[in-house]
Amino acid sequence: MNRSLSEYLPFGKAPTVILITTLLATVYLVVNPVATPDSTLRLWTFARNHYLAYVEGTPAFEAAHPGTRLEIQLVHGDAVSRRLRAAFWADLDVPDLVEVGIDRAASFFRGPVDDVGFIDLTPYLESSGFGERIVETRLAPYRNRGRIFGIPHDVHPVMLAYRRDIFEAEGIDPTQLQTWDDFIEVGRRLTVPGQRYMIELNDAKADEFNVFLYQRGGGLFDADGNLTMDSDIALETLVWFTPLAAGPTRIGASLGSTKILTQAIETGYFVTLLCPDWRTKLLEIDVPRMEGRMALMPLPAFEPGGRRTSVRGGTMLGITKATADKDLAWAVAEHMYLDSEELAARFRETNILPPLRDAWLLPAFLEPRPYWSNQPLGKLYADVADDTPPWYTSPFVEKAVEKMGQVVAACGAYYRENGDAGLRDFARTRLGAAADEVRRHVERNPF
Amino acid sequence: MRAGELKSAVFRLQHRYAPYVFVAPFVLVFFIFMLYPLVNSLILAFYVTSGPKSQVFVGFANFVFLLQDPDFHTAIHNTVIYASCSVFLQLPLSLGLAMLLNQARLRGRNFFRLGFFSPNLVGQVFVAVLFSVIFIPKFGLLNRVLHALFEIPIDTKWLGSPELVMPALVLTSLWMYVGFNMIYFLAALQTIDVQLYEAADVDGASPWQKFLHVTVPGIRPVAVFVIVLSTIGSFQLFELPYVMLESTAGPDNAGLTIVMYLYQNGWILGDLGFASAIGWMLTLGVFVISLVQMGLTGSWKTDA
Amino acid sequence: MSATKAVVYALLVAAAMVMLTPMVWLLAASLKGPDDLFSYLFFAPTLSGYNFRQLFTEIPFLRFLMNSLFVTGVTVLVQLIFASMGGFALAKYEFRGKKPIMVLMLATMTIPAQVLMAPMYELIYRFGLVDTYMGLIIPSAVSVFGMFLFRQSLLELPDDLLQAARIDGCSELRLYWTVVLPVARPMIGAFCLISFMASWNSFLWPQIILQTQERFTLTIGLNQMVGLYSQEYGALMAGTLLAVMPVMLLFFLLQREFISGLTAGAVKG
């Protein structure tokens, strides 16, 4: 038989090529092995700015606790939940500390209370005294059947961010807009469909709607975990909201994509935005050219003297049962979440108000910020922080948010077709149906 | 003589057991990584779960709830529409392209083949990333082109409006898979004897008749294969909408597919028992549909 | 050139342009400077390497690339061996269990991976393979689709050839090596590409198994960028471009085998 090349390459060209590249890759990987840090403790977070702040705070912690190594891992938001759940499920391989978003946290509290993968932090909160210093409404979401499974990262009050220069050019003083009625009236004047909208509002999702709902004192769930999304307040808010976000007289619109916010703000497509504290930092990073032209004000109230803020988002830090040294893990939590110096540094990095009231008096929070027309960012948010409405959680919060979004979308579509006629009844029916769907999910829960 | 007997005995033995050795890896991996989790998952489907030790046996309650859940109906609705578009929109286009390419019987064919197939190489995740930027309202590629050519409003919100999410998904998957299926059709077309066409010409057949009576029967085995493959793949749609809609099901659940529904219930709401039930329903559905498709086209008879 | 031919070409060119436009756009987007992304439809007047610089500084792109190459390469080679052996056995042997195996194979292809994820994760953990490359490679060591392909292509192998070799004293393994493989060569090329694509682009399972960022593959590494560096799509496009190239290259080299191998299996039924 002729000893052709194919004799030497029984599998052919392609596998040989692949074999060669694989060998090269193997060499690379062998030469650059994954450094296995001998970490004593691991902390997972999903937000990049949190991650950076924690990494900065690590040396101080390790110095205070010699011999320990703290490893912070940045894990993509969805992946945190997925991996955590898979790890809890397999009963193994969880990190020591995990940050979980407020929307999802309660889904981890679902089973029998003794089986929840997080430890009860009540004794630590009591002995360290932090329990009283934390804003109670922010601790409430993480209480479950008498235990506290996480400490809050934030307060997340919502203010109105606006293009100061646009208002100036129109000769309007936005701080005079003390109620939503005033705001809407000005909005109708300033809005030019397709070019400029008074405020960013989404008519197919519940994100902005929920902000208004909570400002009004309504909510998706109450303190006992009962569904309240079909309450009268919700109905009223829905009827009020729909003409603002949909139809010919709307003063708000959405972009349809998160990726072009920069352009939208720069071109004045949105004059104002609903702005929780975490969003201010995102605006500073993503829309740098608006430096000095943006400013903040409390939300207009629904009636004179009413609440002028709302809430959006949240993160908790939990300590998992798998941790080897609970006290050490708590020390990390204390250091990152409750240490004043840390908090001041963290605020500068993230603009996020911590849930510790006494921290709000630190100088870092009173600094004027050039981006925001020299307003003292921390103080502004701190002033409204106590008014922040509570966001109660449930394992089914995300379902409720999703259903609410569908109701908002349906009402928007209805309004575009039929205007005001029958809107209230339609909204009531839809809201009730959506709430029933969520209830079905809740009732299935046998735990 | 003993040595020879031994040798031939070994020879016969290895001949007899060789096939078992050859399929051994498959069997091993199958039992460990397929069968065990599968059985586990089947048992799970009858429980509501929330963690390793928190399981409550609920019998068929999961399935009952599933069948009554409006969200599941939405998921089925979306998935079926998507699968139908794949079969009835995409495949004719693939066939059409293949027929065009079959004619251009000279240079350029390889170039066209590469060009049409290349979208498929990219993979669903990367396609989704690319198209999520292309679909951006106002500034994205698609809107600017459509606006310039057809006066379509430039801020059409593809991924932000409930009515446009599925068209966007169908469009994207069209781009990805038309070339892929075209390759199959092209190869099938090339096996059809040219003389059959010539005979049809002699009989005075119109192009449509030629298509119906020569082309279609000629490509039937491949067409069946492609249809079944397409359908099974469509029912398992997940990564494309997941990445394009940024880990959500889109506005008003417009991008909710069956597998996404499974994922949401299993990994977001945390009930892996329920998720297993959904998985089994999907499996059953796909299996039945495939059998029906193959039965309808009589391919069981030709299986070697 | 006749009229119909011209029309055919026109249609083909139009279709090709539509197909290739997003790819061209991808290339253009990768080479745009930070503010140009939406200012110019395709290429900006000045090309800029800004996105690539961002890409390599913000994320360890090279590392992701090597990880992907390694995992995908090993997976493809292992799958190749097992699938070709299995396909050969199913095509050319009669043995007990053959029918059930084929039914099992068909069944496994219709099961969505999601339903198996949690029990599989636990299993992988018990083997100590979480956050390892092996944890990715071993579960996908056998490709059922590959077995089908090889079976189809080997069905035509003349039995006499095999018999003749056996009479000459050829062992089964040697048979596989010297007779079967050369015949299956086109299918091998085809399968390599299919397998490579599937492994290279795989997303959900690596997302679950890999935890240390240094072990991430390209798909999950780049996807992480979408979430964490939300406005940096320039770099994202650059990364996508680079991630797509190995597959493109492989396809370019293997075009012929791929097409013939893939379709031979399907065309014959």
Question: Could you describe the 3D structure shown?
Answer:
The complex is a heterotrimer of chains A (about 450), B (about 300) and C (about 270). Chain A has helices at about 5-10, 15-30, 50-65, 75-90, 100-105, 120-130, 130-135, 135-140, 165-170, 180-190, 205-215, 230-245, 260-265, 275-285, 325-340, 340-350, 375-385, 395-420, 425-445; strands spanning about 40-45, 70-75, 95-100, 145, 145-150, 150, 155-165, 195-200, 250-255, 270-275, 295-300, 310, 315-320, 370, 375. Chain A is of the alpha/beta class and about 450 residues long. In chain A, strands 7, 8, 9, 10, 11 and 12 form a 6-stranded mixed beta sheet that branches. The longest helix of chain A has 22 residues, at about 395-420. Chain B is built from 12 helices and 2 strands; from the N terminus they run H-E-E-H-H-H-H-H-H-H-H-H-H-H. A two-stranded antiparallel sheet of chain B has the order 1-2. By secondary structure, chain B is mainly alpha-helical. Chain B folds into 2 domains: about 1-45; about 65-295, MetI-like fold. Helix content of chain C is about 75%, strand content about 0%. The mean pLDDT of chain C is about 80. Chain C has helices spanning about 5-30, 50-60, 60-90, 100-110, 115-125, 135, 145-155, 160-165, 170-200, 205-210, 220-230, 235-265. The chains are: A alpha/beta (about 450), B mainly alpha (about 300), C mainly alpha (about 270). Chains in contact: A-B, A-C, B-C. The interface of A and C includes residues 29, 32, 260 and 261 of A.
Described by strand count, sense and barrel closure, the largest sheet of chain C is:
none
Q: What's the total count of β strands of chain C?
A: 0
Task: Give unreliable regions of chain C as ranges.
Answer: none
What are the low-pLDDT stretches of chain B, counting only 5+ consecutive residues below 50?
none
| Beta-strand residue percentage of chain B | under 5%
Strand order of the largest sheet of chain B: 1-2
CATH topology of the largest domain in chain C: MetI-like fold
Instruction: Report the mean per-residue pLDDT of chain C as an integer.
Output: 81
Second rung of CATH, namely the architecture of the largest domain in chain B = Orthogonal Bundle
The percentage helix of chain B is over 70%
Q: What's the tally of helices of chain B?
A: 12
Structural class of chain B: mainly alpha
Shape of chain C: globular
Q: How far is it from the N-terminal to the C-terminal residue of chain C, by CA?
A: 37 Å
Q: How many β-strands of chain B, per DSSP?
A: 2
